[in-house]
Amino acid sequence: MTSASPQMTIGELLRRHRLDASLTQKELAQLLTYDHTTVSRIERNERLPSAEYISKFSQALHLPEDQHQALTLVFQATLGEEALPAISSTSPFPREDWGQAPDVSIFVGRQNEMEQLTRWAVEDRCRLIAVLGMGGIGKTTLVTKVAQQIKAEFEYVIWRSLRNAPPLPEILLDCIKFLSDQQFFDLPDHLDGQLRLFSDCLRQKRCLIILDNAEAILLEGSRAGQYRDGYESYGQFLRQIGSMAHRSCLLLTSREKPRELVPLVTVQTLILTGLTQRDSHDLLKDRSLHGDEAAWAALTQRYIGNPLALRQVSATIQDLYGGDIPIFLEEITTMFGEMKYLLEQQFTRLSKLEQDIMYWLAIEREPVTLQELREDLIEPVSPAELLEALEALQRRSLIERSAGRFTLQNVITEYLTERFIERVCEEITLGNINLVQRFALIKATAKTYVRESQMRLILKPLSDKLLASLDIKKLEHSLQNVLTRLQGLTSRLPSYSGGNILNLLLHLGSHINEFDFSHLTIRQAYLQGMNLQDTNLAYSNLLDNVFNNAFGAISSVVYNPNGNLLAIGTHTGELHLSGNDGQILFFNKAHTNWINDIAFNPDGSILASGSDDQTVKLWDVDTGAPIRTLQGHTNLVGSVTFSPDGSILASGSGDQTVKLWDVATGSCIRTLQGHTNLVRSVAFSPDGSILASGSGDQTIKLWDVDTGAPIRTLQGHTGKVSSIAISPIGNTLASGSGDQTVKLWDTTTGNCVRTLQGHTNWVRSVNFASNGKILASCSYDDTIKLWDVQTGECFKTLRPDRPYERMNITGVTGLTEAQKASLKALGAIDENDPQ
Known about the structure:
Blueprint: H1 10-20, H2 25-32, H3 36-43, H4 51-60, H5 65-79, E1 95-97, H6 111-123, E2 128-132, H7 139-150, E3 156-161, H8 168-179, H9 191-204, E4 207-212, H10 233-243, E5 249-254, E6 267-271, H11 277-283, H12 293-302, H13 307-321, H14 325-335, H15 339-348, H16 352-364, E7 368-369, H17 370-376, H18 383-395, E8 400-402, E9 405-407, H19 410-430, H20 435-438, H21 448-469, H22 472-487, H23 497-508, E10 521-523, E11 541-543, E12 554-559, E13 565-570, E14 574-579, E15 584-589, E16 595-600, E17 606-611, E18 615-620, E19 626-631, E20 637-642, E21 648-653, E22 657-662, E23 668-673, E24 679-684, E25 690-695, E26 699-704, E27 710-715, E28 721-726, E29 732-737, E30 741-746, E31 752-757, E32 763-768, E33 774-779, E34 784-788, E35 794-798, H24 817-825
Parallel strand pairs: 1-3, 2-5, 2-6, 3-4, 4-5, 10-11
Antiparallel strand pairs: 7-9, 8-9, 12-13, 13-14, 14-15, 16-17, 17-18, 18-19, 20-21, 21-22, 22-23, 24-25, 25-26, 26-27, 28-29, 29-30, 30-31, 32-33, 33-34, 34-35
């Protein structure tokens, strides 16, 4: 019976329940009425299951109440505090989702442009319309205003921003869920399938889709319209939308034109220019500016009618020149630069709280609520004070508000990001920190795409700028000095410094265990996948950090016969081969699903891998090249092993059979039938004459290799047999089971000689030492036990070296007991724990 260990992921637990039921992923998908790809991705922890999925799963597999409750607890722990997606309402058409669209209740001019866009979208039924123009020219405002005016012509309206460069599948899933009235919660793994679903929505319904800030997915510093690495799929997406027949309209805004749009005759493009003099005057009528027609014309011309630039410069004219446009224009040629200087003038006149808000909005990189801003700020501030500051920034046209959230225009975000990086670089270089204490370089707890954007646009440019003036050793020395000074403070301030320095050092590839982070506040540090062995965090305050989960992606490991090469299979189908020095010799996407077992042939020249994709593959160890694929099983392959002479490979499968293969030709010699459940392990006797197979039917069978005839069946386990091994020097067979025991058997009589007890979870693997006197057993209780075969005594228990091995968390605050337990499971130590 499968039980949930504290370190087990939801995907692993679901997979083990499926295997217990002897179901393939495709069979389970049919039972649950989900796609096979959805089941596969959930089991690989690439997608979180829905509550509905968990419910259907328990019902379909007839799980007992205690197992259902355990499954629900693991699911809830994985889900955390994230809300489940809301079901769309059944309100009449048009159904609308405006996302983070700006408030456009105040709008001036652009009558001709609005009429043109309306004609293209409604009368001409254009499939794709691109609105292009420089930053701050008003593309977003215009497109949003038009969309609001023509929404009655459509059944569905959805507005999404590409500002933080979300991957295309994320945008597609979001749109498909909305356009299909929540009928789809998962997408196919491949892009063609995703686009096919999206295209079906556009053909079946009249949809208006607005994608804003498309320049975020395009590559800077290259030919116009080229995509950033990993975003080329957007090109196929736009090409398909523009060329296929459908009933819908995609409105796209960008500072440059994606290259796919150039040859498409079905695409209409509007190049947005600046406001007219009259419209500029209307835009700034609340600014108390004065001047004649010529002055207004000159002001509009100088700033090319750019609404953002005009709003910024108007504040300078009002504050420094009493609203007198002519005097301002006389001095601007010698006293002022362009947009950057205007923003600098605005920024320096703000209060400290207003400046902090501006920096945080630039760091957040997406609209945030008032409460989220309060939580970001180091110094406590009342909601009333914060709201007053936000309203002041709105009056200065520095921030935007929509649906209770606040954000910046892209141009201002870029300016503030550059300013922030320059100031932080200066602080670290001189050792006089201020912004480093009050602001996070990245937010570990942010959405993945936001955090990646922060790393790309803040953390990396900062480290590059620092390394341009300091070599790595001097930089590390400077950072250690900052840590030392922080530790010398009499009180532990609620600072971001510790987390910022930790994130920066990890980004630089520094050896973290050489730095002392004790007695500090560590906030917003992203530590997932990082090696923190021997790092000192004693008596630190850990807040809002992201650590590793206590379960990794490795599904199988094996050394070659010489012990100098290590092969690793993963639950995503990857196969690694590395030397003892850690150097990767080859890395292959070997299978399309979980690799359950890997094995070297006796001379170490061939590596075999068995997978959930129902195949066995043979690999050339020297080159990493595939030799051949062995096909014939009709369910997952759970185990593989070579005969002692290397001529035969045996494989056990979920189809309840064992197959013997000719390694030289790849042909199946014979199929051994008799088990009634998944064959989880296979092993040859030292002379190769006998093959043993262990199964989920709780039995071990011995077979004559030459004839395929069954010799005997070993019975005694009360749980599924997960692993077997035959001693190299005698007639002893060891078996590990889901009943948490290891049994030793006499293969000549079939009798159980001894039962070894001590593990507290499923025994996953057993293996004899070369002398046959020692047996090692590995369990899901995260231990390896070494047993004396003759006496049955366990003389040593080992735990794996873990990413947080010996990381000192003595006296830390800010963690729940569950979080502390998870860190300890990964190797962290608390010196206050009772020994």
